[in-house]
Amino acid sequence: MTEQTTTDTPTLLDVDALVRFTQELVRIRSVHEPETGSDESVAAALVADQMRAFGWEPQVVEVAPGRPNVLAVIEGGGGPGPTLGFEGHTDVVTEGDLGQWSVEPYGAEIRDGRMYGRGTADMKAGVASMLFGVRALQLAGPFPGRVVLLVLADEEGMMLGAKHVAQTELARSIDACIVCEPEGDEVCVAAKGAVRIALEFRGRMAHGAMPHQGRNPIVAAARLVAALEAYEEGLRETYPEHEHLGVVHVTPTVSLAGSLDQVNVIPADASVRIDVRTVTGVDHARLVAEVEALAREGAHPLGVSVTASVIDDRPAVEIAEDHPVVQAVVAAHEAETGVVPAYGGVPGATDGTILQRDAGVPVVVYGPGDKWIAHQADEYVDVDDLDRYARVYADAARRFLAGDH
Ligand SMILES: [Zn+2]
């Protein structure tokens, strides 16, 4: 700790404006839904407007039609120093079945200290807190280095926004990044990996009364699915339970073959999809090759051929607990709340996974909202979290940029 304390920061934070801005953002239905013309453009424009109101000069970069990233660089004016990133996304998942909601999904209604609505926790609160937190940091006076704000499109889909920005010099200039996803006060130092595998089994069609004339791909697919259980067990022995990420999962999620109307027909083709969730250390390429070999082992004696392909591949990522950005967040959280935060892991991937994989940026995930509330009906965020997180972000940034953590 230095002599400079954070006690003056709260007065630099316009809490009413922060709450209002979050509500405005939640009221924009930023679901990516090509069939209705809905996308992130209106939410991104509101973010860019708020940045301009702070006197910043945002760059708005479309990564696909109607799907802009909003980027801003805030120079500290306090001499040379590192570059700290803050990351959030503007897209939200659909509200789903309205019957499940007891509030209007895009009403941003505040009741008993909670703001309700799709995207409140995941993650318009995080976006709002990081913007207003960095503004408070700036108003507190010059700081070394600079802050880069990344407000991206398509986190909930293929992470096009993160993939796009990760190819830029700006992303590569970031020394460390705080991803503001809702983690319920945990400081998440790891995120689980995912690899999705598609397997196509090709046999030969035949009459059910003459099965010897055919080559049944259903049996081949079933042999693979049955073999995956032991394979998963073996992986868990090689890669034991991770402190923050738990165990490896190898889960068949799709199995398609034949027709419900043609019970007397052996089909020619069967398809299987496998959703694999990994911990750090698992070699995805090797895993895919092993699953393909397992599939062949069952299929070839039947005369069935197999092709395997990868639909999506995101590595598990990790940052050292003693990394300066992690320690800055931990110290700022403790200074604000009086509580030492717990370390945690993210069960899915975030945009931070892509920033780390493609641009080499170390990421820590820490943001307002309950860890398990995302994508549920009656999603909410505690209104008090908005300014609390904004203050922690400002203080964490100050500590990290000044090398004080
Ligand atoms: Zn999210």
Structure at a glance:
With 405 residues, the protein is of the alpha+beta class. The chain is 34% helix and 24% strand.
- Shape label: elongated
**Mean pLDDT score:** 95
Structural Rg: 24 Å
Could you name the ranges where pLDDT drops below 50 across 5 or more consecutive residues? 1-10
Q: What amount of the residues lies in strands? A: 15-25%
Class by SSE composition = alpha+beta
| CATH superfamily descriptor of the largest domain | Zn peptidases
Q: What's the SSE pattern?
A: HHEEEEEHEHHEEEEHEEEHEEHEHEEH
How many angstroms separate the termini?
A: 7 Å
The CATH class of the largest domain, by name, is Alpha Beta
What's the story with the biggest beta sheet?
6 strands, mixed
Total number of beta strands = 18
Whole-number tally of structural domains:
2
- Give the spatial strand order of the biggest sheet: 1-2-6-3-7-17
The count of helical stretches stands at: 10
Known CATH architecture of the largest domain: 3-Layer(aba) Sandwich
Provide the CATH topology of the largest domain. Answer: Aminopeptidase
Helix content: 25-40%
Bound molecules: zinc ion
What do you see in this structure?
Helix content is 34%, strand content 24%. By secondary structure, the protein is of the alpha+beta class. It folds into two domains: 269 residues, Zn peptidases (Aminopeptidase); 118 residues, Alpha-Beta Plaits (2-Layer Sandwich), CATH 3.30.70. A hairpin with a 2-residue loop joins strand 4 and strand 5. The strands form five sheets. Strands 1-2-6-3-7-17 form a six-stranded mixed β-sheet, with helices on both faces. It is elongated, with a radius of gyration of 24 Å. It binds zinc ion (ZN). The site of zinc ion (ZN) has 5 residues, from helix 3.
